[in-house]
Amino acid sequence: MELTPRLLEQFVVLAEEQHFGRAAHRLSMSQPPLSQAIQRLERGLGVLLLERTGRGVQLTAAGAAFAADAEQMLEAQRAAVARVRRISRGVEGTVQLGCVSSLGYWHLPRLLAVAAREVPDLRLHVRQRSSAELAGQVRNGAVDLALVRLPVTDLEGLEVREVAEERTVLAVPFGHPLAGAASVPLSRLGDEEFVTAAPQAMPQIREVIQSACRKAGFVPRSRAQAEDLTSMLGYTAAGVCLSFVPERIAALGHPMVRFVPIESDADRLVTTVAALSRPAADSAVSTLLELMRRHRPEIEGGGAAPVQELQQVEDGSGQEAGSRPEPRGTRTVR
């Protein structure tokens, strides 16, 4: 015997109405076919589900239990149909999302916030790897979508979509002479020492900086190397050396570091954030890509730049107890 959804529905309605005539009316059918269907159900189960009375029917103990279970089965079926349709539309499911560590401070949290607001039933599982590793994992299917910084050496077979652009700024120790500067020309930094990005960990940021410095007439003097932005800021906060970092990391507001905009050609110190996916991506990935396109200003960060916002707060008259005095005034270093 096949327990079809229609047969389960017929029994559930009859259990609710306890009357063949009223149940048949609700089901938009005549009474004899309904009676025959219930009899087939009882024969198939080998159980008496109803006691027929002169004024209707009464559920047996077995019938009452089966009615409750049948209603749950129908609800589960309706939920399954609705869920598969939501998954087909890309508004439910699970996406394996890859991200380079340097995007975890600004762009990733904003993307997660947009997704939670717009598609709350879509679950994002995040893993952090290098851009090269993520490109390979998107290609082999281990990752569905990846946020990376361009350039990436091997993008064969992948779809690449620009998500955001981000400038590079100079991070200086609190007491450094440049800490009070409104901006600094890149060519002015040839005599400074830096903590540089390790080539295997942050190759994109490293290449952008090295190329810009060469065009400005110098090669950065490396005092140390770091594999992540937190370590780079640690060296700078200690007063050991300066560092070049993505602008949005200024949102962290490190109390021992000042972030200074760099004067340079517009295209020299800008990194591009891109999303990598496989061709003919599934609906959930397509939904996320569309969210990135529509909400790019929110993910990229609109309004005043973080460096400017942070310095406006730091330059205010209010000082926390025990805080260091802020260098007074700002200047542009020439």
Automatic annotation (TrEMBL):
Residues 1-60 form the HTH lysR-type domain. GO terms for molecular function: DNA binding; DNA-binding transcription factor activity. Residues 323-334 have a biased composition (Basic and acidic residues). GO terms for cellular component: protein-DNA complex. Keywords: DNA-binding, Transcription, Transcription regulation. Gene3D superfamilies: Periplasmic binding protein-like II (3.40.190.10), Winged helix-like DNA-binding domain superfamily/Winged helix DNA-binding domain (1.10.10.10). CDD domains: PBP2_LTTR_aromatics_like. This is LysR family transcriptional regulator. It comes from Streptomyces klenkii.
